[in-house]
User: Which sequence fits this backbone?
């Protein structure tokens, strides 16, 4: 009986659970590609709790079987308002396949890590099934998979351009980005009796409309028209040019409405909402989550992605780094939405009260851990900004990069009597902590570094220089490797002075657009001479709606329309990747031949000659410095080892 009472703490997943809530008809039914974990780091749970908090009856159908008689899609009946569809916390194709398009054997968002519980292109599959069963019931799609496919995009797995996912899924409306604000507006309008097909003015939504009906008028919005889908199919440069406009509008405070022709119809993408206020984001995190997987999974094993983040705290959303290979700004935006100290500390109290908490918070961070509370000094300057990054090619003079507030929250969490240690598992922006790059930095960066290294590092600090080639880094929108060298010196000096004996863990990417094999040889040399032996690194994977993916497909940089070399063949990718592992016996003869053929005996001598003296850090530790496995990332974790609360895989920046 106790379990029957406890189960009502979760949102219902079956007809019986709906009845236990005392409900008859449901207002909204959510369909998700993930198992149901009632935690603020899982998007479907956040959306469900938001709907519930607005006074509506909502249920979740997690990981429905799409290959049988489709009973899972029918078991809860017809919702009063709409079905909401998401692939889950990850793009289903990234979830299923490696960078080499090999099928993964595990799914971190399924009990026991079992694979096979969601289809490829899950949003399309779920939406089509729902429209076939209930053709008159509206379907809203959202989450990372839908959000990043809202316009013509390159699909790496089929190796072709695809139109907006609204076209391929048959859904009625798409919510892009963080869904709380548009969702509340949609519910408010539907409750007032506005017909679903008239929901044309909700910000941060997209829909398809017959051209004969024209574009709904809104005196507060300006419209821009981008190249039609058909033009993109015929001209790669037209496709590349589109991205610049889409990215800029996605990151503006006051954006324009985007219109694109698709087969005689208009794809209409409304401007986004402004960044959530502290009160708004607190409201989302302060909802009554159980912070646990649904009890139905107890006999099926643990959910790996949940195990990684169960004792973690997400302090903010968004990232102003604008890295070319990253989707955070396209989904969460470049402006930081930070939670209040009160909200964060309340969540700490919840975490330490969990029965199996042992005193260690696994992560106190965000997409980039040290961006908490950072924003423009003069908002009017930000209001007019169209730059995709606030820190590239230089740190904006209007950006407040003071680290005092993030250091303060670290200390307050550290003072909690039940917290033995709160780790910063999220990656940090090392460039913000170097005065050579962040010229406006004040002394707060020194306090932050000491607090971080003495109290919040579990022996290894993760940073992401990504490459050593300045030309490749420029394309990546990352700072020169020289600034990583400075950061390493700062790290080593503090480490030695305080006797910490900790490791610096750098991440690198191979086969990025603009990167040549010679660049990889230089990377191998430079990292060797710094004392690093890289192990688990990442090959670039094209995902929708990034600068790098546009370059990969089209060959053009979307901002300059200049052509760039991109390694695309399997052999080119393998060759670039092998330079990471210069120290392995099986690679030495191959590398020797490549460098001789390239007439680079200088690199050959530096790379395969006598080992350079190890850094003092390595000499003291006696351990190799290694990067973390990119396979772990692709199995449900982001590069920081956690999932953000939007339900989107976070990329390191």
Assistant:
């Amino acid at each position: 009986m106790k379990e029957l009472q406890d189960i009502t703490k979760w949102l219902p997943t079956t007809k019986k659970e709906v009845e236990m809530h005392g409900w008859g008809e449901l207002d909204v039914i959510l369909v998700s590609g993930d198992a149901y974990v009632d935690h603020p780091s899982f998007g479907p749970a956040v959306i469900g709790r938001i709907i519930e908090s607005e006074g509506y009856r909502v249920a979740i159908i997690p990981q429905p079987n799409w290959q049988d008689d489709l009973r899972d899609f029918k078991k809860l009946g017809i919702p009063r308002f709409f079905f909401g569809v998401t692939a889950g916390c990850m793009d289903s194709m990234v979830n299923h396949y490696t960078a080499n398009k090999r099928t993964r054997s595990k799914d971190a968002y399924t009990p026991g890590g079992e694979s096979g519980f969601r289809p490829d292109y899950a949003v399309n599959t779920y939406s089509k099934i729902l429209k076939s069963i209930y053709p008159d019931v509206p379907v809203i799609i959202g989450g990372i998979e839908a959000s990043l496919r809202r316009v013509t995009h390159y699909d790496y797995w089929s190796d072709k351009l695809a139109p907006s996912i609204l076209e391929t899924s048959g859904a009625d409306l798409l919510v892009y980005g963080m869904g709380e604000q548009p969702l509340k507006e949609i519910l408010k309008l539907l409750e007032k009796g506005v017909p679903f097909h008239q929901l044309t003015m909700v910000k941060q939504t997209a829909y398809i409309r017959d051209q004969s009906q024209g574009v709904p008028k809104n005196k507060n919005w300006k419209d821009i028209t981008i190249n039609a889908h058909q033009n993109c199919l015929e001209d790669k440069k037209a496709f590349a040019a589109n991205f610049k406009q889409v990215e800029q509008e996605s990151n503006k405070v006051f954006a324009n409405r985007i219109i694109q022709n698709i087969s005689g119809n208009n794809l209409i993408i409304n401007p986004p909402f402004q960044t959530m206020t502290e009160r708004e984001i607190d409201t989302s995190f302060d909802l009554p989550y159980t912070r646990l997987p649904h009890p139905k999974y107890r006999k099926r094993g643990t959910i790996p992605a949940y195990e990684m983040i169960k004792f973690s705290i997400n302090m903010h959303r968004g990232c102003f780094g604008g890295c070319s290979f990253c989707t955070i700004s396209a989904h969460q935006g470049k402006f930081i939405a930070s939670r209040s100290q009160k909200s964060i500390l309340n969540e700490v109290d919840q975490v330490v009260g969990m029965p199996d908490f042992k005193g260690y918070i696994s992560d106190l961070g965000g997409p980039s851990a040290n961006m908490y509370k950072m924003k423009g000094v003069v908002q009017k300057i930000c209001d007019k900004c169209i730059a995709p990054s606030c820190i590239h090619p230089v740190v904006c003079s209007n950006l407040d990069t003071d680290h005092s507030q993030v250091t303060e929250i670290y200390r307050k969490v550290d003072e909690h009597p039940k917290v033995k240690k709160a780790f910063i598992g999220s990656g940090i922006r090392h460039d913000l902590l170097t005065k050579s790059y962040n010229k406006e930095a004040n002394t707060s960066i020194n306090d932050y570094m000491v607090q971080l290294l003495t109290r919040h590092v579990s022996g290894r600090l993760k940073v992401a220089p990504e490459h050593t080639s300045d030309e490749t880094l420029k394309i990546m929108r990352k700072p020169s490797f020289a600034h990583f060298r400075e950061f390493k010196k700062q790290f080593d000096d503090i480490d030695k002075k305080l006797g910490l004996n900790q490791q610096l863990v750098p991440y690198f990417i191979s086969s990025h657009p603009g990167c040549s094999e010679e660049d990889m040889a230089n990377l191998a040399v430079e990292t060797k001479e710094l004392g690093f032996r890289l192990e688990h690194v990442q090959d670039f994977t094209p995902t929708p709606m990034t600068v790098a993916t546009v370059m990969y497909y089209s060959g053009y940089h979307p901002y300059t329309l200049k052509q760039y070399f991109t390694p695309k063949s399997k052999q080119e990718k393998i060759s670039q990747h092998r330079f990471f592992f210069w120290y392995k016996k099986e690679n030495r003869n191959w590398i020797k031949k490549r460098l001789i053929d390239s007439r680079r005996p200088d690199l050959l001598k530096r790379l395969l000659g006598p080992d350079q003296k190890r850094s003092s850090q390595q000499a003291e530790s006696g351990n190799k410095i290694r990067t973390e496995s990119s396979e772990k990332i692709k199995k449900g974790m982001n590069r920081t080892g956690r999932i953000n609360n939007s339900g989107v895989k976070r990329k390191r920046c």
